[in-house]
Automatic annotation (TrEMBL):
<keyword id="KW-0472">Membrane</keyword>
<comment type="similarity">
    <text>Belongs to the mitochondrial carrier (TC 2.A.29) family.</text>
</comment>
<keyword id="KW-0813">Transport</keyword>
<dbReference type="InterPro" id="IPR050567">
    <property type="entry name" value="Mitochondrial_Carrier"/>
</dbReference>
<keyword id="KW-0496">Mitochondrion</keyword>
<keyword id="KW-1133">Transmembrane helix</keyword>
<keyword id="KW-0677">Repeat</keyword>
<protein>
    <submittedName>
        <fullName>Uncharacterized protein</fullName>
    </submittedName>
</protein>
<keyword id="KW-0812">Transmembrane</keyword>
<feature type="repeat" description="Solcar">
    <location>
        <begin position="21"/>
        <end position="103"/>
    </location>
</feature>
<feature type="transmembrane region" description="Helical">
    <location>
        <begin position="112"/>
        <end position="132"/>
    </location>
</feature>
<dbReference type="InterPro" id="IPR023395">
    <property type="entry name" value="MCP_dom_sf"/>
</dbReference>
<dbReference type="InterPro" id="IPR018108">
    <property type="entry name" value="MCP_transmembrane"/>
</dbReference>
<feature type="repeat" description="Solcar">
    <location>
        <begin position="194"/>
        <end position="283"/>
    </location>
</feature>
<dbReference type="Pfam" id="PF00153">
    <property type="entry name" value="Mito_carr"/>
</dbReference>
<feature type="repeat" description="Solcar">
    <location>
        <begin position="106"/>
        <end position="191"/>
    </location>
</feature>
């Protein structure tokens, strides 16, 4: 009878999270954010990209022509790339963001510095995916039948360096984006009352603010990466060259081409993705607390 407590200890030990798995659980909230963002937001992103490249005069005509020529699935054309990109990079971005917040939360503006760090990681990891995604969105099936075709075209034209075409523009776009988006979200999360609606509002407002302020950076980055397979003169335009080209051709308002679908996308997409992120983050934290409790029982 004296040996009865042993099974309880064994059960507690078996409930513990294996040490190799515990760090991986911290990546799940970012992955959930990525899946929700692509599912809700990619059709808007396709329209935004095509408007930035001046392929259609407006949102309605863009949707109509795409659906008429290739069916509704055309709005998800190139979705494999952002999904792969976001599932790869977003977990690390959010881990860096939350780590900085928790470690330096005593500093004013800690959430913005965390967003800055996340933006650097996002640009370095995401550039190859972005190049392929934009090639798919900017063309029809007659040019690139699928993602593999676009990857091979970039590789055949430029080799491995082609996948980092526009990296400088990507850094210029992603770092301010991460800083403003995650920094604003972090501040709103801190001050708003806890709850689903607060998370949705914080995500939507942070995204809308970011796209409104930083849309010109995304427009120039998109045009640079769309030129990856174009003539040498187009590729050599670079950041300032593309900026001048857009302003000369379309005026300053051309830098905000595609803002409407981006704004329409920002509220539902960011609200849904932040809800998914916080829900999974809460589940992971709860699992971590249970694991810690099991460890204490064993020791």
């Amino acid at each position: 009878m004296a040996t009865q407590p042993a099974p309880a200890a064994s059960g507690a030990a078996s409930a513990r999270i294996p040490p190799v798995v515990a760090p991986l659980l911290q990546l799940l909230p970012g992955a959930a954010h990525a899946v929700a963002m692509v599912t809700v937001g990619h059709p808007f992103d396709t329209v935004k990209t095509r408007l930035q490249l001046q392929l259609h005069p407006g949102i309605v005509s863009c949707c109509r022509e795409l659906v008429r020529s290739e069916g509704p699935r055309a709005l998800y054309r190139g979705a494999a790339m952002p999904l792969a990109s976001l599932v790869t990079k977003r977990p690390f971005e959010f881990v860096a963001f939350e780590w900085f917040n928790s470690r330096f939360n005593h500093l004013p503006g800690a959430s913005y510095f965390g967003g800055f760090l996340a933006g650097i990681l996002g640009a370095l990891i995401g550039c190859p995916f972005s190049v392929v995604k934009i090639q798919l969105q900017a063309s029809g099936r007659d040019v690139h039948a699928n993602t593999r075709s676009a990857i091979l075209a970039v590789w055949g034209s430029r080799g491995s360096t082609g996948f980092y075409h526009g990296l400088g523009a990507m850094v210029i776009q992603q770092v301010p984006y991460g800083t403003v988006y995650l920094g604003t979200y972090g501040k709103l999360r801190e001050f708003l009352p806890k709850g689903y609606w607060s998370t949705a509002v914080a995500g939507g407002v942070a995204s809308l603010t970011t796209w409104t302020l930083l849309m010109p950076l995304d427009t120039v980055k998109t045009r640079i990466q769309a030129a990856a397979l174009q003539s040498e003169s187009q590729r050599r335009l670079g950041w300032t060259g593309q900026l001048r080209h857009v302003v000369r051709e379309l005026g300053p308002r051309g830098l905000w081409a595609g803002w409407s679908p981006a704004a329409l996308r920002s509220l539902p997409t960011s609200a849904a993705s932040m809800l998914a992120y916080e829900k999974v983050r809460s589940l992971v934290a709860s699992e971590g607390r249970r694991d810690e409790h099991a460890r204490r029982r064993v020791t």
